[in-house]
Write the structure tokens for this entry.
Amino acid sequence: MSETEALESMVGGEYKYGFTTDVEYEDFPTGINEDIIREISRRKNEPEWVTEFRLEAYEKWKQMEEPEWPNVEYQTPDFDKVQYYSATKKNNGKKPESLDDVDPEIIETYEKLGIPLQEQKQLQGIAVDAVFDSESIFTTFKEKLAEAGVIFCSISEAIQDHPELVKEYLGSVVPKGDNFYAALNSAVFSDGSFVYVPEDTVCPMELSTYFRINNMQSGQFERTLIICEDNSHVSYLEGCTAPMYQENQLHAAVVELVALENAEIKYSTIQNWYSGDEKGKGGIFNFVTKRGHCRGDNSKISWTQVETGSAITWKYPSVIMQGDNSIGEFFSVAVTNNRQQADTGTKMIHVGKNTKSTIISKGISAGESNNSYRGQVKISPRADNAQNYSVCDSMLIGQTCGAHTFPYIESANPTAKVEHEASTSRVGEDQIFYLQQRGMDEDDAISLIVNGFCKEVLKELPMEFAVEADKLLGIKLEGSVG
Amino acid sequence: MLEIKDLHVCVAEDPSEKILKGVNLTIGKGEIHAIMGPNGSGKSTLSKVVAGHEAYEVTQGDILFEGESILELDPDERAHKGIFLAFQYPVEVPGVTNKNLLRQALNTIAKEQGREELDPLEFEDYAHEKLQLVDMKPEFLERSVNAGFSGGEKKRNEIFQMAVLNPKLSFLDETDSGLDIDALKIVANGINQIADEEKSVVMVTHYQRILDYVQPDFVHVMIDGKIAKSGEKDLALKLEEQGYDWLHEEVAVSVNGEQN
């Protein structure tokens, strides 16, 4: 290996998004209580019903305990030390009217992350909502989408501009007291995206949100709500990164999707939060509740996730198939390296007749990490002819990592068909030697093997992001073999 | 082309397990060699060591390729120089198509050798031409590397890869094993078309059979980690008739001779 190559590989193997942006934040006390929640609501100028929603959630949260069943170990965050609201001084909690009002440092940050916001540089065919800590900074292509009747804005804007829609759907898929972290989110949620696609509309471009945690003390509590009316279609993608800090940061998001009759929502995630250093210091705690509701007949919700970051991941994007003939899909690649721990999977709840779900999960563990798949398939008595097909494959790289599979299958209808396949394989020295003999270096060999392993999932990603995901997997596992 | 000098090799994890005990072998440009020998004599190990497998450690001697030692080179660096190994047990890589693997491999090697890389369309044309050498259909390119292939298909795939990558020196490790006569002819035909006065081929084999179709310039017999005897094609025929026992005796005599 030449010197330049060696250098490139070293630089490439590190977390590329770990830099910090120097911005001034508004003062906001840490900790959580009723006054703080009211203050968040006041700063965001929210109507009374939102404040009430938050306070009710807080009351529920106080009664709840952190779940202990996930197969992960960590020190519970000190909820009194987290800052639940973080706004830059410049914006003062208000979304800038134009890009001229956005802190140039932040614009530069997004540029570095590969998400240019300036009009002439914007990614073509993709509308981006940029969320920096707790604030949505800027949303591109808003006008163009509005022409098609599609609403794409931050949830805070939606509360101001489309309160009737938010009121109808917020908390309708993930109730306020659904679980510990969903309740916390419901109490203190900051920005996230809001998407509304009216009837008979195919959203003319990909929608995406780029989440960036910058503030060391702040947690991020994004709230995303996507509603797809009858005969409509939308594809949405989120990307996530954070600076490298020694301390852990909390990210507890709630995402709700509603698909009405014949509607289809495709939701993709590329999660690359900072995962901590080799010894497991620092990194994001990623505790997320994502759920889709196929409310109408013949509707479809599809989750695709490429999870490579975070110190701890606890996440089960689910689909409730209530409408007859509705379809739920979950395609997942979860990669853990060093001391990362992931407990991720899905829940497929079949309620309507002839509902169909597919689960394809690919877990890759390297280093001393631990990777668990946890999935539930539930078939209710009314769900005649429901079908589920699940495949959970695990790949181990090296000798010191772990892979686990926890499938739960409950069927209350005798006409249901449920299939579950699982496999575990190891990236063998023989495979690597074979590819090296064909001329590839070790890192390229591993990257090729892993990409082959994940192919069924990667092909589900929108084109523009498939390439990025491909590279990300390669970088993530560089140098992971001896 | 290749010069193996007094090569001693042991298993990296267990140095007490010595496999090669002083191999000397010179392969000239454009020559076809056959290495025969009983099971466990070190034939396959020799191929893997030339390719740079990490499971083995060279404790003595040297391997020179085009006059330079390659012992310090990684397997991929040896491949860049033009060394190819057709595996005895080709490895499966699920989800990676033959096309993807070969285009990446070919372009990596091209880049290292300062040649121009092929774009996907150019590669497609180039690969189709090579497929004919081993009588395979274009669909073959779209299949995952060796996954679900029959034994014969795997071996043909190795020769196809050799044709695409166009190496200077190829070690074919028991490429003929497990092939029926038709497949053997196809494979042999492929090797004959690839081999020319610029390229060298070393066939590691148990059987004389393939040598009926690919004419070797030299035949070597390996016994107990050494080349016990070298000769021409008729040596292979003698082995076919008489087995290896008479050679064991010869080796024993010469070992005793050395001790005296």
